[in-house]
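Protein: Cysteine dioxygenase type I
Species: Pseudomonas borbori
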Amino acid sequence: MNSLEKSVEAIRSIWGPLSSELAAGCKQQLEALLQAPVTEEWLATLHQEQLAQKELHRDPVNGFVLLAHSEPEGLYRPPHDHGRGWVIYAIQQGEIEMGTYARIEDADGSVKLVKRGSTVLRPGQAQVYLPGDIHDTRCVSGPALLFRFTERDLKKEDKEARKLTRYVEQDGEWVPTSQCAPEWLKS
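Structure follows.
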């Protein structure tokens, strides 16, 4: 059994409703996975292929998904949340800066983000984002190889339930895409 199979099996053995223990246990398993020797075929292939995204595991019973992402230096993903889902990012190679934000509603009902801070994740480190947490990512040293563990299929979640929120910069503020006026209205 390779490191990937061991980590997946360990996550299956502790799986249940979201709790502090489950989040910590899954994070611990991803941190262990980051220590896998590059000589393991699955990891050697990831390093060689450097695909933008590759599914490593989709659990047919519990629904969690483990993806690998190769990101070039400078790649930026604007602020977003993961809807009802929670995720863990784990860095195998390179460095990823992750900013965190608070969603603030003004008196007029408009929404904007306020940046709380940022952390640079380095090889061997993992970060948990719970439902409602808002963050962005920037590859500051690449190419980076990161694992993204999601407790459900977020693409399906976004397509069916439209629960994920993405933000865009407008007049120097990050606002939900739903709050932006179309370009033709601005002229």
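Remarks: The two ends are 61 Å apart (CA to CA).
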